[in-house]
């Protein structure tokens, strides 16, 4: 019998902990349900922050203009957040309907889900960043169907897909079709998944190793140091870039020997599964690199005839007298696709037998003194086509293309403009050329500001519906993140001085980057005093002191500005200099909606009270990494004049402000002056991160304390900052507390 109490004691030991846990879950049911809702809200705020940051980082391009995409871990985390959101919503519905008997069980489930939420919130910090460079992607070449050469293409394709050959040399005389074949293969490679990178670079003559290194990196959407002309150092950097993943590198039109090591090309091997293809007229170049040589032979007679008829038009066969002459002319093309295409094109539409016979004799005369298979032979065939243009203006239009670098993609609008300037287009066709400009975007790169000022004066410029002008040095000029359709980009220009920059009246998007002697937008002039300018980005201009100087000029040309981005301006001290300007002057930035300032190290006050009165349409303010920033809104002039009255509350109104983000501002003490309150009923999100000296958040007044009506969240980092804030009204903290998320 003595064993019974012992058994009872052991039984109690076994059941007591679970019973106590069950009772705790029942007792803390409401608390667990509230914690679960709070944790879910915190997670969704973090999710919104991540998505906003992702959108910004993937849309804004880096200084290297590289495209970005979300990391895989970020994508998975967002998917996990979506999944757990659905689960928690189901749990919350059950909690709200819980009976007394199910509270313990559901309370336990809520406690478990809280732990899961804590874990996923921790996983969402991403200290190494959210994005990575997108894999390099190439665009397919525009190509026509191959006539013949199919067996050569299949042979090269077999070497690329198989493991037998790693380096391939495609050889043949000029105009035989080497490049055309490889363009077809390049397009096929883009459709497959065997290689991570398909890289095409045209080498040409003479070989410039440094240029080749940069071109390979650019084709991979990577970047080497522009100012370093040391082949060996650049070789090491390129080697490092290319070792990431499997590549197929196609080097077209190689004329001279080189070593892979000197350029920085990792040798293709069976182990790294990479491939190299070069096209060259010189077999010796291919052999020097150790390539498997594939020779491209001229087309057969039948293949040549088919290609010729495709280009000249098969209806020519309806003239029986021309068949014999046509066959003889095809023979003179020697099976070279390039010669066939240009000669057939020059004869298209000609039906007179005498003209065909004369053209045949002329072609034979040109070729009789040339060596078979030589460069002179293909040149004479091309010149035959050129001479048949007859009209000297058309010939000069053709020759003007020689002003562009080899393999440069010439823009049609550039040519039209050049032909107009040189008088190659007759007056009757001038309007036709101008009409063409209305249909497409005109893009051009100008040497300096004088070119821009002269160009803006042309009448035809006013007719353009879309344009993008780049002045000076802006890398990847036509790949900027553009907001509007009429864009001017100024890079490394010398501004200020005697000559102002003249902007067209309809410019909408203005980029100013690394410009010397640029002190303010007042250095810029618009003939009509006003423009359609909506977006302005100013970056890395060391001498700019204020964005707009109202003392020296009017600000009317920025009256329509909606976006203003300021980045790395070390001497910027004020956004707008309005000292001494009459109060009746029109408000500056009256249409501004988005304002971003980053790394402006000498800025101490963002907006004066006088300037703030014109910012009534402002929707978003982002200020970050400004080491001396002390206040966001302040009085112009001596602060003591306004600080004496400590009893009257000053109201600062921003009626449309929805987002305010302040980050890494180590000297920031206040958002607005003492006893000031910002009235912004539209405010949805407030983010304050790494602002250790900030004393208050002036969003709640002393009379009937209440938060902004649209407020959704206040994000504070670090969390100690929230406890250190001072409040004029002790109830203000309690009013804002439900919206606060601490990190």
TrEMBL record:
The keyword Glycoprotein does not apply. GO terms for molecular function: ADP binding; ATP binding. InterPro entries: Apaf_helical, At4g27190-like_LRR, LRR_dom_sf, NB-ARC, P-loop_NTPase, Plant_NBS-LRR. Residues 26-87 form a coiled coil. GO terms for biological process: defense response. It holds the Pfam family NB-ARC. Gene3D superfamilies: Helical domain of apoptotic protease-activating factors (1.10.8.430), P-loop containing nucleotide triphosphate hydrolases (3.40.50.300), Ribonuclease Inhibitor (3.80.10.10). Transmembrane segments: none annotated. Keywords: ATP-binding, Coiled coil, Nucleotide-binding, Plant defense. Residues 153-315 form the NB-ARC domain. Residues 586-697 form the Disease resistance protein At4g27190-like leucine-rich repeats domain. PANTHER family: AND NB-ARC DOMAINS-CONTAINING DISEASE RESISTANCE PROTEIN, PUTATIVE-RELATED, NB-ARC DOMAIN-CONTAINING PROTEIN-RELATED. Belongs to the disease resistance NB-LRR family. This is NB-ARC domain-containing protein.
